[in-house]
Each structure stands twice: as C-alpha cells, then as structure tokens.
Amino acid sequence: MNVADQQAALDAVHDDPGDRPVMRARFEHNGSPRYMLYTIKRLGLDHDHGFHLDVQLVSDELEGGMETVEARLQEGEADLIDIDYISTARERSEGASIVAFHPYGRTVGGLVAPEDTDIEDLTDLPDHRIGVVRRLDKNWILTRAACREYHGFDPDEAATPVEAGSKVGLTRMLHDGEVDAVLQFWPIVPEITERGPYREVLPMADLVQRLSETDERLPISTFLTSESFFEAHPETVRGFKGAYRDVVDRLVSEDDHWEVVGEELMTYDDPAIVRAVRDGWRDMVVRDWDEARIDGMERLFDHLLDVAGPEALGVDRIPEGTFRPEVP
C-alpha cells in the first residue's frame, strides 16, 4: 500500500489537538511503528495522556546518506522518530543533537532467499550477491559480526553486498533476480515468504541474542527526539511513553486491533500475512527498559565493535547522553 493511502487512513483518525501540546511523529510508510501509531490515534491514547500526536508517513529513501526520518528530525521538521541505536550513536558522535528516550524493539530483519537457494546458513554467503538497504544497515553489521566471530570470514569481502537504497528497492532486486538473497526488514519478510517462492533462511534476531550472550530481549531500535524538545517538553515526552505502553498492552493481548491494521495499512489483506506480522510484532516489541537492559545494549555494541570494528559500525563508541531513560 502506498504512502498516500496509508496517510489517508491516519488522517481519518487525526482529531483536533485543541490546546494540547503537539508531538510531530515522522515514520516510514513501510516500517512497523505505523501499526502502533495508527492504533494510538484510533483509540485516542495520545489525548488520554495529555498531548496530540501528529503522524505523517514518509518514504524510506536516503537523503544525504541518512534515512528520511533521520533527516526530518535533524532538520527540525519532526519531534519523534525511531532508528536503531547504532545509527543514533553514529549521528550523535557526528554532532547531531538527538537522544534515545524509550525502547521500541528488536527491529532487525531476516535473510530471505528463493526457495531453491543453495544458501542454508551464514557459511554459504561467500561468492553470493546479498542485497542490503545500505552497508551501514544494522542487519548487515550483525551478519558481518556473526560471520567474523563464528565462521572466520567477513562477508563484506567474501560476498558481494549490493545496496538497494530502500526497502522497496530491496524487494524488487530479489524479485528481479539481481541478488541471491536479501537482508530485508522483519515486517516485510512475511509479505515475501507467505506469497512465495521465497523463504527466510535466518532471522537476524537469532544473531542479536547470540552475539549479546543474553536471553533478555534487547531493543535494537529506540524512539528519538531532539535534545531541545526533550528538555523543553518533558510532559509531552512522558505522555508519549504512557501512550506507547498502553498501546503495546492492547496490541499484545487483543487480536481485533490487528484486523483493523491489516485492512487500513497493509498492502495485502491476506489473514495469514496479518497474523504473521502480528506475531512477529509481539515477539519484537519491548514495552519498557531499565538500566540492566541498557547495559545489555551497551554490551552488544561493544561486542559488535570488537568483532566488526568501527569501520563496519560507522562509529567507535556510544556517546555520553545518548540514552535518556529518565525524563527531566
């Protein structure tokens, strides 16, 4: 489903902000946060928590090397986005005034290939063309780290990564046979595999847990805002955190919300795809965090840095003040 149709569904549940403070949310049209953002708006959970969430969907194209949502936040056109915390650390180390104030989830993807592929696991990647959104994408970084740690090779050298520039472009490359496999983001994997003839060879979430050496579900993506918004509008930030916890509780326990999401926001209204996305979202999402979980995220970063190196990550540290679990 294109951006305009999904935005129309969101606009239908956009009510008047009244005198409530506004938080401008800018999210990708094919990213999983749109499911919970739409449900927050449909149920009025933002107003229940004293603020107005203005949701606009954007493309997942790159702008100056950054994802579109990153560009919107850094240019002052957004107050709320989500990206992985490696990208957050990278942008903050380069001077971006952004902070991660709440977890979203284990938003990684999967290695997807044709059903008749000869790629059965990571050891089969050499001499194959592997599609990625970009080489600094977290899925490729995780793959490189796991291959170097457990199998003694770097797929950035032994295989051929092919950058698509967007998730849509990545799926097209797979369908057109331009690559042997792709590292696609998790919400799109069911749309590909349920319709065939493709299968998921390996979920990247398995690599997250193996590399982090913990059973605790670690968020890879977090919600971001600017430092100025965080400091100037603490009540609004707290309001979003409350609305998010509420919507997670509803989407985890109540199936009927997913039927509406499937009808309004998904390209395919196939019940099997909707159920697969629903179950994947529930397995991915992280409702809250604490210092122990943040420590786990930092340990995973350090492990990726040790294994893959700063060139692969694009950053050599998580700058101080990146994670802001306590709102002032």
Number of helices: 15
Instruction: Determine the N-to-C terminus distance.
Output: 39 Å
Number of domains: 2
Query: How much of the sequence is in beta strands?
Result: 15-25%
Overall outline? globular
- Side by side, the strands of the main sheet go 9-8-10-7-11
Helical content (DSSP H or I, runs of 4+): 40-55%
Q: Any idea what the radius of gyration is? A: 19 Å
Ranges where pLDDT stays below 50 over 5 or more residues in a row are: none
CATH homologous group name of the largest domain: Periplasmic binding protein-like II
> Overall pLDDT, averaged?
92
Q: Could you explain the architecture of this structure?
A:
With 328 residues, the protein is an alpha/beta fold. It is 47% helix and 19% strand. The protein is built from 15 helices and twelve strands. Strands 9-8-10-7-11 form a five-stranded mixed sheet. Strands 5-12-6 form a three-stranded antiparallel sheet. The longest helix is centred in the last third of the chain and has 23 residues, at 291-313. The mean pLDDT is 92. It comes from Halomarina ordinaria.
Helices and strands in order:
Blueprint: H1 3-11, E1 22-28, H2 33-43, H3 45-48, E2 52-58, E3 62-63, E4 66-67, H4 68-74, E5 81-84, H5 85-93, E6 98-105, E7 109-114, E8 129-132, H6 138-151, H7 155-158, E9 160-163, H8 167-175, E10 181-185, H9 189-193, E11 198-203, H10 204-212, E12 221-226, H11 227-232, H12 234-253, H13 256-265, H14 271-284, H15 291-313
Parallel strand pairs: 1-2, 8-9, 8-10
Antiparallel strand pairs: 3-4, 5-12, 6-12, 7-10, 7-11
InterPro entries: SsuA/THI5
Protein name: ABC transporter substrate-binding protein
Region (Disordered): 1-21
